[in-house]
C-alpha cells in the first residue's frame, strides 16, 4: 500500500506541475494580447486627454507595467509566509490597475461605437456594421479581466503544487522511516548478541588480576636470578625470598575473599540472557503495535543502545527533532509498553531520577 500511495502522490505531483506549466503559457499569451490591445487603447485615451503626442506612450506603459509587476508579486508571495497586510497590498494593487485598464477599455470602446454609429447615420460607409456601444464596451473588458482571473488561477495552482509536494515528501519520509525501523527491529530479533556493560566490581577484579600477574612475573624473574647465584647464597636468600613471596600471594589470592567479593559470572550471564529475551519481546511488540513510525524508531534506538542520550537520538532522527520531542516520543512508547505488561527491566524507567524530566527538557 505504501508503494501505491507513493506512486499516486508522484503522479499527482507531475500532473499538477504539467497543469501549472500549461496555465503559465496560456496566461503569458493572454497577458501579451491584453497588453497590446490595452496599450493602443490607453495611448489613444492619453491623446484625448491632451497629453503631448510624444509622451502618450508613457501612460499605457505605466498601467501595463503595474499589472505585470503586481501579478509577479502575487505569484511569489503566495508561497511565502508573509503578513496578510503585505500580501493584501499587492492584491489590491493588481485589482486597481486591472480595473483602470478595464474602465479605460470600456470607455474607449463605448464612445468609439457611438462615433461609428453617428458616422453611419450621417451617410458614411465604414465597411462593417458597428456593435452597439454596450456590447462593444463588454467585449473590450474581456482581455484585462482574463489577466486578473488567470493571475488568481496561477496562484491557486502554485499553492496546490506546494501541497502536493509536501504530501509526496511526507509519504517518502514515512516509507524510509518504516523501512529503517523494520530492518533494525528484524536484525535485533534474529541475530542480536548480548550487550554486557562491565560493572564496577568486575573492573576492580580485572585490575587486581592484572596487577597479580605483573607481580608474579617480577617475582619469577627474581627467583630465577636467585637460582643463578645459588652457590653464593643458597643458605639464606632463596628460602626467605620464596617464602615471603608465597605468603604475599596467599594474602592477595584468598579464595574466600574472592568468592565473597566478585559475583558469579554464570549468574550474571543468565540474567543478561533473560534481559535479551525480554528486549526481543519488546521488539516484537514494537513491530506489531499501532504506534507511529517515528515513535517506533525512537524506541528501537533507545532499546538498542540504552546509553544513547536524548540529544543524540533527536539528532539521529529523520528528520532531526528537538530533544524534548524525542523524549515525548519515547514516553508514548513507554506508556504503551507498560500498558501491555512490560516493566523495568529491561524497559528504561522514564520516572527514574537519572532520566531528564519535563522541566529539564523545557530548559534545554
TrEMBL record:
It comes from the Bacteria. Pfam families: DUF2637. InterPro entries: DUF2637. This is DUF2637 domain-containing protein. It comes from Rhodococcus erythropolis.
Amino acid at each position: 500500500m505504501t508503494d501505491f500511495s507513493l506512486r499516486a502522490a508522484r503522479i499527482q505531483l507531475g500532473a499538477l506541475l504539467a497543469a501549472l506549466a500549461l496555465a503559465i503559457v496560456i496566461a503569458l499569451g493572454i497577458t501579451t494580447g491584453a497588453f497590446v490591445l490595452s496599450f493602443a487603447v490607453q495611448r489613444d485615451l492619453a491623446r484625448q486627454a491632451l497629453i503631448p503626442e510624444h509622451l502618450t506612450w508613457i501612460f499605457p506603459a505605466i498601467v501595463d507595467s503595474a499589472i505585470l509587476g503586481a501579478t509577479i508579486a502575487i505569484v511569489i508571495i503566495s508561497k511565502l509566509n508573509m503578513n496578510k497586510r503585505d500580501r493584501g497590498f499587492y492584491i489590491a494593487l493588481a485589482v486597481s490597475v486591472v480595473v483602470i485598464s478595464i474602465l479605460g477599455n470600456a470607455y474607449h470602446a463605448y464612445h468609439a461605437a457611438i462615433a461609428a454609429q453617428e458616422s453611419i447615420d450621417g451617410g458614411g460607409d465604414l465597411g462593417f456594421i458597428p456593435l452597439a456601444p454596450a456590447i462593444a464596451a463588454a467585449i473590450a473588458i474581456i482581455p484585462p479581466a482574463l489577466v486578473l482571473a488567470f493571475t488568481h488561477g496561477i496562484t491557486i495552482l502554485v499553492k496546490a503544487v506546494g501541497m502536493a509536494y509536501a504530501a509526496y515528501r511526507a509519504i517518502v519520509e514515512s516509507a524510509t522511516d518504516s523501512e529503517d525501523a523494520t530492518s533494525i527491529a528484524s536484525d535485533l530479533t534474529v541475530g542480536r548478541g548480548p550487550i554486557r556493560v562491565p560493572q564496577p566490581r568486575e573492573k576492580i577484579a580485572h585490575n587486581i588480576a592484572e596487577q597479580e600477574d605483573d607481580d608474579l612475573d617480577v617475582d619469577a624473574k627474581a627467583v630465577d636470578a636467585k637460582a643463578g647465584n645459588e652457590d653464593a647464597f643458597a643458605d639464606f636468600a632463596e628460602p626467605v625470598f620464596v617464602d615471603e613471596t608465597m605468603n604475599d600471594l596467599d594474602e592477595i589470592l584468598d579464595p574466600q575473599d574472592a568468592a565473597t567479593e566478585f559475583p558469579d559470572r554464570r549468574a550474571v550471564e543468565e540474567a543478561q540472557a533473560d534481559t535479551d529475551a525480554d528486549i526481543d519481546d519488546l521488539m516484537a511488540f514494537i513491530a506489531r503495535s499501532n504506534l507511529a513510525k517515528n515513535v517506533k524508531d525512537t524506541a528501537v534506538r533507545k532499546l538498542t543502545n540504552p546509553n544513547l542520550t536524548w540529544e543524540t537520538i533527536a539528532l539521529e532522527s529523520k528528520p532531526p527533532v528537538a530533544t524534548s520531542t524525542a523524549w515525548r516520543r519515547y514516553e508514548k512508547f513507554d506508556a504503551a509498553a507498560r500498558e501491555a505488561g512490560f516493566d523495568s527491566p529491561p524497559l528504561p524507567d522514564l520516572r527514574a531520577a537519572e532520566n531528564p524530566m519535563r522541566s529539564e527538557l523545557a530548559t534545554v
